[in-house]
Hints:
It is a single chain. With about 290 residues, the chain is an all-beta fold. It contains no helices and 25 strands. Strands 3-4-5-6 form a four-stranded antiparallel β-sheet, with no helix packed on it. The chain has a four-stranded antiparallel β-sheet with strand order 7-8-9-10, with no helix packed on it. The protein starts with 8 loop residues before the first strand and ends in a 5-residue tail after the last strand.
Amino acid sequence: MSLFFHHRKIVLTAIDLNGNVAWEKxxxxxxxQMYKYGYAASPLLVGSSVIxxxxxxxxxWLTALDRKQGRELWRTPxxxxxxxxxxxxxxxxxxxxxxxxxxxQVCAYNPQSGQLLWSVPGTTAATCGTxxxxxxxxxxxxxxxxxxxxxxxxxxxxxxxxxNNQKCYEQSMIxxxxxxxxxxxxxxxxxxxxxxxxxMWRERLAGPVSSSPVLAGGLIYWANENGSVFVFRPNSQxxxxxxxxxxxxxxxxxxxxxxxxxxxxxxxxxxPNRQEYLICIGTSGE
Length: 286
């Protein structure tokens, strides 16, 4: 059995490009009692601030700190419920909004002040994926203990545009040219029309799924936990598979794109001989 101790708090550390600690600060409590899970949300850089969330079955919070000195700029309470999604800022419905799902709700905050802009009941108790958006709608999916994908108008009207009973729990979805693509936990790929949720097509692939997708060079790259990487063209009429590749035996991480290259972490072997690798994928000769 493995034990991970997180000191009952979240500590944020700023490190310069030479590896020196610029500042370090305990930003809030984090001590789950009901579920012994570790911390999962990523920090978010917004202008001169960094935004951090800490959501568990205790005094939960969302806070922003000055990136240069670590000074707290604002703090907003969150429901006392363990959930894992990372906050994201989007320009939607004509203004910047800090989006966050989980705790049976979809919320938007003012990223400059932390003020709640609107909140709509939706998704589930726990979500992990990051929300996505288009010009007028935001989209969230989860999770635990039930399944739901939901689209909400971001104009403050609290209007639910559509929802269904599919879920992307750990992975995020992706939206391209007015269509939402979702690879569910069970390994079924869906394409929904973003405005009304109409199912355009579905394709059974393979799960389980933890990795989120990226769009690069006009193609979507998406992996499942067993190391299969599905490369397909965004196409609202059919599942347009370009190729299916294999990277090791496990993929949980999402890929990163830099300088026309894909960086992806994967694993081979099983414990105690499991070994992780980092691969760089690009055009030959680059």
